[in-house]
UniProtKB/TrEMBL annotation:
Domain of life: Eukaryota
Keyword annotations from UniProtKB, A to Z: Mitochondrion, Ribonucleoprotein, Ribosomal protein, Transit peptide
Location relative to the cell: Mitochondrion
Family recorded in the similarity comment: Belongs to the mitochondrion-specific ribosomal protein mL54 family.
Gene Ontology MF, one: structural constituent of ribosome
Organism whose genome encodes this protein: Macleaya cordata
This protein's name: Large ribosomal subunit protein mL54
Pfam families: Ribosomal_L37 (PF08561)
Record-linked InterPro entries: Ribosomal_mL54
Region (Disordered): 31-51
One annotated Gene Ontology cellular component of this protein: mitochondrial large ribosomal subunit
């Protein structure tokens, strides 16, 4: 039993030279081998034509499926989506704009954003001061 274990361990031991060769990173040369199809990339790099019809493209969200066996979701009418969804793309005020306003009259969401952005700015300033010293 001990003899067979030592033989199997001996076969797993790799010399330092072999590790050096195996662990070395290599990079492709800029003027290296040509790809199949000749020089310059040619027609092989051209974008493929879409096999989806215009009807499918206009009724489904193509590429939104994240499940292996699922299908792309269908586009619904605007009234079927929740109201908060339409406010996701609204522009939120920047820190400089929030500093100009009276903090006591800010709505809760803007106040929360002001505190977050102000803390972030102070942390960046302190980090830059520490880096200079």
């Amino acid at each position: 039993m001990a003899m067979s274990c030592s033989r199997s361990l001996r076969s797993l031991i790799i010399t330092k030279e072999a590790v050096g060769v195996l662990g070395r990173r290599t990079f492709a040369a800029a003027g290296g081998k040509a790809k199949k199809g000749g020089k310059g990339g040619g027609a092989g790099d051209a974008p493929k034509a879409s096999s989806l019809t215009k009807e499918v493209k206009s009724t489904t969200v193509v590429g939104a499926n994240i499940l292996k066996d699922g299908t792309d979701p269908k586009i619904m009418a605007d009234s079927e989506y929740p109201d908060w969804l339409w406010h996701l793309i609204d522009k939120r005020p920047a820190l400089s704009e929030l500093r100009r306003k009276n903090i006591e009259t800010l709505p809760y969401d803007d106040l929360k954003r002001f505190v977050k952005l102000d803390n972030r700015a102070r942390i960046k300033e302190n980090n830059s001061l520490k880096a200079k010293n």
